[in-house]
Amino acid sequence: MRPGAGIALGALGVLAFSMSLPATRVAVHTLDPWFVAFGRAVGAALLAWAYLRLTGAPRPTRDQWRRLSIVALGVVVGFPLFTSLALTTQTSAHGAVVVTVLPAMTAVFAVLRAGERPPPLFWLAGAAGLALVLAFLAASGSMRGALSAADLFLLAAVVLCGLGYAEGGQLARDLGGARTICWALLLSLPVTVPVTAVAALVHPPQGGAAAWTGFGYLTVVSMFLGFFAWYAGLARGGIAKVGQIQLVQPVLTLIWSAVLLGEAVTPGALVVAGAVLACVVLIQRTRGGAVPAHAPGEPASAGRDGAGHAGDVRVADEVS
Asked: Could you report the per-residue pLDDT of 121-160, keeping only the tens digit for each?
């Protein structure tokens, strides 16, 4: 493991992801949200197919396909779909506050996946962060006693994305960061292609330059290149340590929302974001034990090639 390189790669991934919500907000302003969510996955899958062909990547094993389906559910289908639906009615600044709990959710799934036993303080901090977000939604949204559909979509996106991040970070130790997202994109094609086609037929895509620019960013950067760095960083530096870098993502998103979209960022949103970030920091610091280099139940040699080289070395080769 090389924590320094992992942190650098993770930071690059977070920088790429920090513009995802503003780009989605711009894209769904004139494009159908279902087309945006699934169309970008189809476009990224074409890039993934070209990458895998050029690199001669071997096909995943049966167990790796199973784990890739979890990655696909979280980051290829779940997060893009629910954020696209939410941002048709909500601002990206509002979404950034809700997504503040993503590092905590990633940590929760990483702990469950690694088989660790966190102390009670871990769960208390996680519950406090979620309570703060729910309180913010209750105070700022037009909920009238219940969560709005957009808020529920955002919370569902966070849960599925945390699952996809944690599972993908572990799987990248075997496959490498780039191959993990590429195979997940190809695995999703039986779902993403039909939905994209239907969405295009029902609502023919007609958008201006801004909408297509946002869609292009989501396809090339958010759904493809950003994961090269992010999964490589998780694999090389560890999910626990590199996952902390996500703490800056909501702040960056709020900045992009204000600068690029002219959205109002209220003092209350900043206060809530800061409080939730503090809870996430506490969660990260209460996690005990190192993340193993292989999944529970797998042999200790998992993630090594025939020559005995660790999987994170292959990650370095892929992103260099």
From this structure: 767 877 787 777 767 766 765 444 556 788 889 889 999 9
Q: Rounded to whole angstroms, how far apart are CA atoms 196 and 42?
A: 8
Sign of CA dihedral 174, 175, 178, 181: negative
CB atoms within 10 A of CB 54: 8
The DSSP code sequence of the chain is: --HHHHHHHHHHHHHHHTTHHHHHHHHTTTS-HHHHHHHHHHHHHHHHHHHHHHHTPPPPPHHHHHHHHHHIIIIIIIHHHHHHHHTTTS-HHHHHHHGGGHHHHHHHHHHHHHT----HHHHHHHHHHHHHHHHHHHHHSS-TTS--HHHHHHHHHHHHHHHHHHHHHHHHHHH-HHHHHHHHHHHTHHHHHHHHHHHHHHS-----HHHHHHHHHIIIIIIIIHHHHHHHHHHHH-HHHHHGGGGGHHHHHHHHHHHHH-----HHHHHHHHHHHHHHHHHHHH--SPPPSS-TTS-TTTTB-TT--BHHHHHHHHH-
End-to-end CA distance of the chain: 16
| pLDDT, tens only, 206-238 | 888 999 999 999 999 999 999 999 999 988 877
Do the beta carbons of residue 34 and residue 84 sit within 8 Å?
Answer: yes
C-alpha angle 190-69-250 in degrees, rounded to nearest 5 = 105
CA dist 229 and 235 (Å) reads: 10
